[in-house]
Amino acid sequence: MSEENRDGVRVVSCIPAKDEEATIAQVMVRAMRHVDKVIVCDDGSTDMTGEIAKQLGGEVIRHDRNMGYGAAIATLFERAIEEDPDVVVTLDADGQHDPDDIPRLVEPILKGEADIVVGSRFLEAEDDKTPGYRKYGVKAITGLSGRATHVELTDAQSGFRAYSRKALPLVRPTEMGMGASTEIFLKAHEAGLRVKEVPIKVKYDRNSHNLNPLYHGVDVVLSTVKQWSIRHPLVFYGVPGFASLVVASFFWFQTLETFVRTRAVITNVALIAVAATMVGLMLMTTAIILWVMVSVIRER
Question: What are the pLDDT digits (tens) for 62-73?
Answer without folding.
Answer: 999 999 999 999
